Hints:
alpha/beta; 4-stranded mixed beta sheet; 3-stranded mixed beta sheet; 12 strands
Amino acid sequence: MESKAELRKKILSLRDNIDPDEREDKSRKICEILLAEPWYESSDKILVYAAIKSEVSLKYFCECALRDGKKLYFPRTDGDKMEFFGAEKYEDFSKGNFGVMEPIGDDIFSEENAPILAPGAAFSESGQRIGYGKGYYDRYLATRPKLFPVGICFSAQIVKEIDADEHDIPMRAIAYENGVKYI
């Protein structure tokens, strides 16, 4: 089995090589799928992310969620710690670590239950996730076991197996352009 580093590099290269127009179309399709999920209607608060590089863009999802009166929380890192803070408009962000747009406000997410949409490099059919190697999402999820983690990716990022470590927190669902796979 490939190491996590090898698999991360391989899958990120595949993702980066998806045509930008195709990536935009697939991102929109994923957003439409997420908006139709049962947990969306019942959730007042949703943890999301601001896409970087070739990640699935959640822009359309966020626009719809805000229009529907949902409260959105985006990640902000500080050292090896990550927390989620509320944001509603572009002015609520500034460029943070790794070039990621991070919320600047102090409305920290403090609930126990909510869906959390997680980007990543690769996802296995059993819900394992390879991130970008810093462990932010695993550490965050380890302290909040009632959150509902949904991996967000393109189908090219789904692999049969990932050699998971003891500290890796699996996703409960994976959303991609062909639907949602619940684990």
